[in-house]
Amino acid sequence: MSYDWYESIGRPQFVVAPMVDASELAWRLLCRRHGATLCYTPMFHSNVFTKDPKYRKENMVTCDEDRPLIVQFCGNNPEIMAAAAKMVEGQCDAIDINLGCPQSIAKRGRYGSFLQDEWELLKKIVKAMSEAVSIPITCKVRIFESIEKSVEYALMLQNAGCKMLTVHGRTREQKGPLTGIASWKHIKAVREATSIPMLANGNIQSVEDVYRCLDYTKVDGVMSAEGVLTNPALYEGINPVSWEIVEEYLDLVQQYPCPTSYVRGHLFKMFHKIFTLEENNDDRQILATAQNLDDFRKVCSSVKDKYLPYHEGKIVYENDENILRKGYDLLLPPWICQPYVRMSPEEHTQKMEKLNTNEYSVAAKRTLEEFSGATISRKKMKKLKRIMRRPGYQDTNQNNSRNGEICVNENCPNPLGGKCLYQLCKKCCKNKCFEEDLDCAGHRILVHTRREMAKKYSNNIDKTTVTVTN
Description:
TIM Barrel; 3 domains
């Protein structure tokens, strides 16, 4: 029977999503303490997992309390995926295939949502993994724009041997600032067409959202990622005091160590409303450079000392002007764990358009640029600054164009992009595309395409099926 396995693990309804650098053992155990009934490991690269013992040892960490557990792999080779599955068969209750990752690294590696058009390959992967192990193979997918194709896709995976589906109600184009609202309408249609256990993913910010999703889609369980990151007690139906849940997490990290970058990321999420306040800039900086548990505990203690009097009612707290100026009118005080709500694609588009008008100063863009005009990360900028401070450093980037030609913008000294459609450097090309609603394949700038997608999803998705709560 399709549901025998699902029954055997307790018919879990409250599921913590697989999140790279965020679904480590300590975090899973914290979520289990507060209502989660099923957890996933982070996504593991099957090729690296099968070849690198150190990678396996550092990443595949579990314990007796960490069940039921699903291990997730990505990849595109049926034999390697099957071999990876065989290695963890005895440490988990099922093995999941990541068919939902929409990031650029997944496109380069040919895995995640970028396999959703290769149905014959997916059939082989599911079949090979199912034959290699005695536990179920599951799949986490994203929808297609078409409901009909989404249903057909799900049925194909079910017929190939998939024993449980997790359907994220967004397309692979809906990510970052274009994330938008997930379509529960698509999820409901897939639920009605399939006969295996199914989880829904998308729009889960509170326990009320969980029950609303279960009621509307009729799925067996609900998965949350961002919602759980900002409130690990989401499934318990409470909004805990941030420093209390952080202290509990740090105690688990002490027992089950993980990289400091994971801990830092979790604390930033749980303290995210606290750190919107300028009065906490020092604590935010300490957290950004923290290197050990003692540093993390100092940040937690500092936040607690500052806001405990407010929490106990000894001092009356009012919304800080800084919060109101940023557009937050908090229903809960900032020291309470609460949802992070993304701006809509429409709001993002409007913001980007304003950035290219006089309404915003150039400084407001907060971008960091290489000599070529390309936007780069803060981490890379810091590295470049360190290199520039070295004795004997010489600037070799002034004329680093492949052909020595300069951007056609008369006020720009930067070298032009070799494949730019408009004979501009990346910075000028980006400005032109934002201002004139264009694309540039050479620089991989897709302003027009993404704006059209945002409008399309805004018009097509029936927003009456879901309400996001603060």
